[in-house]
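Form P-L/3: holo structure prediction, ligand magnesium ion.
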Amino acid sequence: MMTVTGLVKRFPGVVALDGVDLELRGGEIHALVGENGAGKSTLVKALAGVHAPDAGTMTFDGRPYTPAGAADGLAAGISVVHQELALLPYLTVAENLFLRELPRKAGVVDRRRLREAAARLLAEVGLDVAPDTPVERLGIAQMQLVEIARALSAECRLLILDEPTATLTSREAGRLFTILRALRERGVAIVYISHHLEEVLELADRVTVLRNGRSIASMPMTGVTAPDLVKLMVGRDLAQEFPVKPPTEPGEVALAVSGLKVAGFEGPLSFEVRRGEVVGLAGLVGSGRTEAMRAVFGADPALAGQIELFGRKVRIRHPKDAVRAGISLLTEDRKSQGLVLDLPISANVTLAKLRGFLLRFGQERALAQDLGQRLHLRSAGVSQHVRTLSGGNQQKVVLAKWLNAGADVLIVDEPTRGIDVGAKYEIHELLLGLAAQGKALLVVSSDLPELMGICDRILVFSRGRIAGSVQRADFDAEHILTLAYSGYLKNGETP
Ligand SMILES: Nc1ncnc2c1ncn2[C@@H]1O[C@H](COP(=O)(O)OP(=O)(O)OP(=O)(O)O)[C@@H](O)[C@H]1O
Ligand SMILES: [Mg+2]
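OUTPUT (holo model):
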């Protein structure tokens, strides 16, 4: 259906694509893998007509394909779910779904038809929200599902998904896979980008590996293993998936939360985390983990509850209070909450530290350079604007910023979402290093193997309550998942 030959795309200071070849066939799921900054999203944008390549050729249905913009891509039948969400927050879910073609009756928008059509699409992706809900009220996973539903709303022949499952739980991802397989049956060509190699192994028929802007391998998936892919992506073997958390003697209680009530959730929640301890928060998307952490941090108001830091009662009504008290929060939505996109990397990294005084420029750069090196940031230098970094590299900047803030209690929400396998390991090591220094860590993650790898203890959230607390010695995926589903089941039901 589509061929790409020798594609080149340069940005100031970076060659994002440096000769990419690709062949896409109808009825086939083609995985695209590579480290953060390898060029995956740039390639997608070239296919979609968003970026004009500097060199190389593309054909679609055997004819030269030279889109002048995203509209040409759409007209050709190419639908894209981009890595960075692109919904209009003040419009409703239904309006976002059909923005390009609102159903009309006598010139005005036919609200009923709009709602019905939206409800059908939402049911298809398994998203249980009213079509009239403004998008800004949705959580990030729900927004992701709206994006996917929108891509399905257009009659597409080539569907490209850039890390669609980064925010989804395994159940939601499973539903997406079912949809993708059905589209494949209908002859649609699908490009699937993911850092979750087990998904790629499960789903894809072919795979292309990008490294430093080049397509270095393209092959059928039969017989390909995860270690094979990792080796091609990073150019070396990775010994193990997770660094081993050394058993620690937990210190004094750093953060104690009692009777916390958050709007929209049952609660009340009580938990604590000690110095040197890494406590994981497992649960389904929407189980209240993020909301609870935002309330602790003062980003959302708590309806009730008490917070103690090192045995002293503190009042946190604003993130400023939390930062002053020594609590940091790495948010799950880096784009809107964690970064100033139009400032350079160096300024972003030192942002959380600037409290009323200015760091000297040189100092700021040195700090940023050091953190960038530790996290293997791929950029044209610390003065590159964050907006133009790859998705995973943006995530590393957010992380660097909070690591640099020097808090005693660090809350991280989905810290490795969208991070490639090699850098994931570095981030896990950084987190464990902070725990070893006596910091207290709370880690929200939908990646259960990750939590089981790096945590001392896992709190399992289910429908706004803590359904259980599991110690490292008792970690068992099935047990944890059963707890996570427990709040949603009637008596006697099993997940
Ligand atoms: N608009 C832009 N201006 C300047 N540089 C850019 C721009 N877009 C991308 N880049 C650079 O191009 C390179 C490739 O980025 P790209 O987003 O394609 O990576 P990726 O493979 O999608 O990574 P990730 O897994 O982190 O999403 C990176 O070095 C990035 O900083
Ligand atoms: Mg990307």
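COMMENT: The first helix runs from residue 40 to 48.
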